[in-house]
Every structure is written in structure tokens, then in C-alpha cells.
Design brief:
five-stranded antiparallel beta sheet, 158 residues, mainly beta
Length: 158
């Protein structure tokens, strides 16, 4: 065994400094249409496997069960249920938020998968797992082609 091979966590050492990372993220084939539909039409689309009869959101190009290529785009609507949630007190840069926000995994009705996003128009004490919610889209002129074109999910009927 080489002398420098780490075999226990206690053998690890921190390295200080910066690692320059350069790259460009692309949506991919399925993601490009997914975000274009949100931006242009204010609707959530999924890809359905015609073999397994599963619909995926976010969409992917192959079925996770049978590896069939997915080509059947369908509108899935913007309604779902809170699968789980957390309260965020800090933003992505570690700065304290003026007000905590509720971030939830929303299981879109009738699909495999879901969307992690903010909840709005709801107080923390009203939030619960299984709560029916619906997407609130930004006005079309303010959409940029990102997941943030969905402003938040609110309780259904509010």
C-alpha cells in the first residue's frame, strides 16, 4: 500500500487556497424545452415514457426504469403537494435573510419527481407535508428562462 494513500478520515488534511473552476452549465435537450415552456408559456411540461407510462419532472431524455428514449411531451399543470420542506434563514452566500423563507420539494401531481422551490402566501405554522400547492409564475415580461420564472408555490385556492 502506498504511504500517501488515505484509508481513514483522521488522515485527511485541509488544503487552503482557491481552486479556479471554469465551466458552463447547459440545460441539455430536455431542460432547454422545459425552461422555454416556463418562460414563453407559463406552463410546466414533463416527458412521458410510453412504455412505463411514467411522466418525469424535471424532464429527462431516458426513462429511469426501462431506459426507453422519452419523446412524448405533456403539460403537467402547476399543482402538487409539499413532499418535504425546510426553513432557510441564510441565503446562498451565507448572509442572514431579512425574513426566513420556506423551501419545499413540491411533488407535481401525476408525475415522477418534482421541483424544489420557495413557498409563498403561507405562514410557517400553516405549512405541512401533503399541503396542496400551485405554481405562481412571474409576469411574462419578467421571465428570463430559469426556474425563478416560477415566483413560488402557494397553497391551492389562495
Amino acid at each position: 500500500m502506498p504511504a500517501d494513500k488515505v484509508v481513514q478520515v483522521s488522515q485527511t488534511k485541509p488544503l487552503h487556497g482557491e481552486i479556479p473552476v471554469y465551466g458552463q452549465y447547459t440545460f441539455g435537450i430536455a431542460g432547454e424545452r422545459f425552461f422555454r415552456e416556463i418562460k414563453d408559456n407559463g406552463r410546466i411540461m414533463g416527458l412521458r415514457c410510453e412504455r412505463c407510462n411514467l411522466t418525469y419532472v424535471p424532464p429527462r431524455i431516458y426513462c429511469e426504469r426501462c431506459f426507453n428514449e422519452l419523446q412524448a411531451w405533456i403539460e403537467v399543470g402547476g399543482r402538487g403537494k409539499v413532499h418535504t420542506y425546510t426553513i432557510a434563514h441564510f441565503d446562498l452566500d451565507g448572509a442572514r435573510l431579512p425574513e426566513p423563507i420556506i423551501v419545499a420539494m413540491v411533488q407535481i401531481d401525476g408525475v415522477c419527481g418534482g421541483i424544489v422551490h420557495r413557498l409563498g402566501e403561507v405562514r410557517l405554522e400553516e405549512t405541512r407535508i401533503g399541503m396542496p400547492v400551485e405554481a405562481v409564475f412571474k409576469p411574462k415580461a419578467q421571465r428570463t428562462g430559469s426556474i425563478l420564472d416560477i415566483e413560488y408555490f402557494k397553497p391551492q385556492g389562495k
